[in-house]
């Protein structure tokens, strides 16, 4: 028993010891666990008490307004635990949110694990600028980090963003930027919007291309040729291009060989004209006429487009007139108001126009709009082309978010150009008929686009179109063309066709219908002769048929551009044939050394005008433009017309390189209808010296018939002679014009033809054609005299194979303040009296406060103007 109890007791003691040890170990484990947990908590607490620091990465960033390139501003933090919101403020800058850049959220958020977050400053177009001739300046904003208990600010607390006005886009915008400029909320753009939201730009490009292929084309007035110039097309497929009459072939015969910056004959104008793509309408018309047979025509356009897009990024360092510039304002406007829009309208669903090329093309249209918006001109035909481009492109691509503003801007700019450049009488400030027509074509196209798309423009545009058509109608020659004047050469656009295009725009103008249909419908034009008092141009005509007589005199200012020194010059057509002409313009030259023929073509020596001491007029340096009202005399009736203009009365109207003023010249023209003009060049010296006074006539003839005793010349193309106007050997003898001087003592006559040395004389020019110059007779009358001198001439038009009528001039005895002529024709007499001081004259002891007095059948016609 004793043993048993002892053993039991021992066993219990051992068990208790084991249990106590286990308890002790458990307690020790619990203590250790508590210590570990406490230590972790303390460590974590210590870590949480140390703040993350944030900083801008750079002190400054640039955003570029041209290509709409955003500034990506990086903010860094020192640790990457959890998400973190960091606040900032925008201050200290002249950029305006939602005008110069997209307004900012004033906070940037780090996602869990990120150490870098970005703030995007996206530039916008600034429409606040009203003077578009002044380039926009760079603008800035400053971003500063704001203190917060959740983070510390370290190193760079503020950064500056420069919103750079870099003029225009240098490269095609990225997909991200481009699609941000599309109004994706428009109907049928849901697929594009969905792809953009998902960041899938490959899908977005395809969806947008599909949208445009399916979208109906916008109504566009036709500028596509209604005929195909097959030679132009054939040349293109031989890599031969003719621009402004000069041809060049790119070798080898591949599209890749084309250099879009090439200047044929070293002439920058060639480059600029080349980048208008004016052969595309021929290719497109050929494709339209027969798509299956002429598929290669459309393919050629696409291939050239792809080549141009890939190689024609804008170099913003180039000046507008720099050689090789594919982005001159004028060409940029032409592309998107004409050739490119024509091509896009026709080829948008062409199978070989890939989605990628189409999207790049749309990006290029957007670039053109940005460029035209920022690189503005508010004058001349260039300003019209740019305004037209802005308007047309915005109408045809309303999908661009900025299109509404661009359309408004186009209207505003065109209004400004027209208010500045179209004079009240309808003449255009460049005073060059060819550029008048070019400008009118742009304004007309602008107006037609608006009408076809049910959009309003403005009364200024509508009125200007009509007034400019009036000018075209009244200045047109009997042959249906426009006169040579300044840089305007022989116009191939027949005026009847031009006026026919105005009839649908102005159906109430029955005179337009009458002119366009040669009298078959409409109402006859009320007047035959006409004056443009603001432009300083007078037209005297016998009627409106192709066989009528016509004289044009330019007594206006120099003009804003494309001007020649041609004041008081005349052009005369007799019975529908050109006889006395302006020498015309030689092709433009842009080399370091001016072409002597180009220079000569702009001088008075190449015009049919009066001169003193062999001196050309010199107005260009004085910028004698439109600041003063043109002063011309004008009278018209059923039987006669009279006009007069003056050179030298204004102190800025000088002569020669030394810019002197030896004399005041007044040219008087009395038209005795239907076929006789009396021309008087009156010279009033401003000194007591003897001067050589001359009258020059440029004659559209091969060889003049001359009576050397009478110093009389007959301008007539005879059978078998070369016709320099039509450039053919004439098969008939044409109507003639006889120039008969009222000879003064010692008056001489000279004839020059095709002379180059010792001085250039006797040439007619036609720019931008292979027919660059043609030798013609220049007839010149000279007299050396001191004091007031008058040189009088009879210009008599005669039908072919008829003798000219007898016309006799006699100088009347008058007082010292008056010059008088008695003109005898067909047993009737008329008297022309001229004030030598252009103020007062005397006739039969009676003083007249007038420049001129005409007596017809006993009736006095008093004419007064202030030169």
UniProtKB/TrEMBL annotation:
Keywords, in A-Z order: Calcium, Lyase, Periplasm, Repeat, Signal
SUPFAM superfamilies reported in the protein's UniProt record: CalX-like, Chondroitin AC/alginate lyase
Domain Calx-beta: 51-165
GO biological process: one example: cell communication
Molecular-function GO term, any one: lyase activity
One Gene Ontology CC term in the entry: periplasmic space
Domain Heparinase II/III-like C-terminal: start-end pairs: 528-714
Main location: periplasm
Pfam annotation, one family: Hepar_II_III_N
Domain Heparin-sulfate lyase N-terminal per the UniProt entry, residue ranges: 178-514
Compartmental location: Periplasm
Name of this chain's protein: Heparin-sulfate lyase N-terminal domain-containing protein
Protein source organism: Pedobacter psychrophilus
């Amino acid at each position: 028993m004793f043993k048993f109890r002892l053993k039991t007791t021992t066993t219990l003691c051992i068990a208790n010891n084991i249990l106590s040890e286990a308890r002790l170990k458990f307690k020790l484990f619990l203590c250790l666990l508590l210590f570990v947990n406490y230590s972790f908590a303390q460590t974590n607490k210590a870590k949480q008490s140390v703040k993350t620091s944030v900083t801008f990465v750079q002190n400054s960033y640039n955003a570029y307004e041209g290509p709409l390139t955003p500034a990506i501003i990086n903010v860094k933090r020192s640790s990457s635990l959890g998400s973190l919101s960091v606040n900032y403020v925008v201050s200290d800058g002249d950029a305006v949110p939602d005008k110069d850049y997209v307004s900012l959220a004033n906070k940037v958020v780090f996602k869990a694990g990120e150490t870098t977050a970005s703030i995007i400053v996206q530039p916008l177009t600034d429409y606040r600028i009203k003077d578009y001739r002044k380039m926009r300046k760079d603008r800035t904003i400053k971003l500063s980090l704001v203190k917060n208990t959740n983070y510390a600010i370290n190193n760079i607390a503020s950064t500056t963003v420069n919103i750079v006005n870099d003029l225009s886009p240098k490269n095609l915008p990225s997909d991200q930027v481009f699609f941000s400029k599309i109004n994706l909320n428009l109907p049928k753009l849901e697929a594009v919007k969905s792809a953009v939201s998902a960041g899938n730009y490959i899908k977005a490009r395809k969806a947008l291309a599909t949208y445009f292929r399916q979208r109906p084309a916008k109504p566009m007035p036709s500028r596509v040729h209604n005929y195909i110039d097959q030679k132009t097309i054939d040349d293109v497929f031989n890599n031969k291009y003719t621009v402004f009459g000069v041809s060049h072939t790119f070798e080898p015969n591949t599209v890749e060989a084309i250099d879009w910056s090439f200047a044929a004959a070293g002439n920058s104008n060639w480059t600029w004209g080349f980048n208008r793509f004016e052969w595309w309408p021929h290719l497109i018309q050929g494709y339209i006429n027969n798509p299956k047979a002429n598929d290669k025509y459309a393919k050629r356009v696409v291939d050239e487009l792809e080549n141009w897009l890939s190689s024609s990024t804008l170099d913003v360092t180039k000046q507008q007139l720099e050689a090789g510039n594919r982005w001159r304002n004028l060409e940029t406007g032409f592309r998107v108001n004409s050739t490119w829009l024509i091509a896009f309208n026709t080829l948008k669903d062409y199978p070989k126009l890939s989605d990628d090329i189409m999207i790049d093309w749309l990006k290029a249209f957007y670039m053109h709009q940005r460029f035209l918006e920022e690189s503005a001109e508010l004058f001349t035909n260039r300003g019209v082309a740019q305004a037209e481009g802005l308007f047309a492109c915005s109408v045809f691509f309303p999908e661009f978010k900025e299109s509404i503003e661009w359309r408004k801007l186009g209207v505003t700019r065109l209004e400004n150009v027209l208010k500045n450049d179209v004079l009240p009488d309808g003449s255009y400030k460049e005073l060059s008929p060819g550029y008048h027509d070019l400008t009118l074509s742009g304004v007309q196209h602008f107006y037609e686009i608006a009408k076809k798309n049910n959009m309003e423009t403005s009364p200024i545009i509508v009125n200007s179109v009509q007034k400019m058509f009036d000018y075209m109608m009244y200045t047109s020659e009997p042959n249906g063309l426009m006169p040579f004047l300044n840089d305007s050469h022989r116009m191939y656009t027949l005026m009847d066709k031009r006026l026919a295009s105005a009839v649908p725009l102005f159906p109430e103008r029955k005179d337009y219908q009458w002119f366009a249909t040669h009298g078959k419908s409409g109402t006859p034009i009320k007047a035959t002769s006409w004056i443009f008092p603001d432009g300083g141009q007078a037209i005297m005509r016998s009627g409106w048929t192709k066989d009528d007589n016509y004289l044009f005199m330019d007594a206006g200012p120099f003009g804003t551009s494309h001007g020649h020194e041609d004041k008081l010059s005349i052009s005369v057509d007799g019975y529908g044939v050109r006889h006395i002409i302006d020498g015309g313009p030689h092709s433009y030259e842009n080399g370091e050394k001016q072409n002597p023929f180009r220079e000569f073509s702009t001088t008075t020596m190449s015009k049919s005008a009066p001169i003193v001491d062999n001196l050309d007029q010199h107005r260009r340096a004085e910028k004698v433009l439109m600041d003063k009202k043109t002063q011309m005399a004008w009278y018209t009736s059923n039987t006669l017309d009279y006009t007069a203009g003056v050179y030298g009365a204004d102190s800025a109207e000088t002569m020669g390189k030394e810019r002197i003023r030896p004399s005041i010249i007044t040219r008087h023209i009395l038209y005795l209808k239907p076929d006789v003009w009396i021309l008087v060049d009156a010279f009033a010296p401003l000194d007591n010296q003897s001067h050589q006074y001359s009258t020059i006539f440029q004659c559209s003839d091969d060889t003049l018939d001359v009576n050397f005793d009478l110093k009389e010349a007959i301008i007539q193309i005879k059978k078998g002679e070369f016709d320099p106007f039509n450039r053919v050997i004439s098969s008939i003898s044409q109507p003639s014009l006889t120039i008969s001087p009222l000879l003064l003592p010692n008056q001489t006559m000279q004839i020059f033809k095709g002379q180059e040395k010792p001085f250039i004389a006797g040439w007619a020019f036609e720019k931008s054609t292979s027919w660059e110059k043609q030798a013609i007779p220049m007839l010149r009358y000279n007299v050396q005299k001191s004091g007031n001198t008058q040189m009088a001439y009879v210009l008599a038009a005669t039908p072919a194979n008829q003798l000219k009528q007898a016309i006799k001039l006699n100088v009347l005895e008058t007082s010292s303040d008056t010059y008088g002529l008695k003109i005898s024709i067909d047993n009737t007499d008329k008297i022309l009296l001229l004030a030598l001081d252009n103020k007062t004259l005397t006739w039969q002891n009676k003083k007249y406060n007038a420049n001129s007095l005409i007596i017809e059948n006993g009736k006095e016609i008093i004419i007064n103007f202030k030169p």
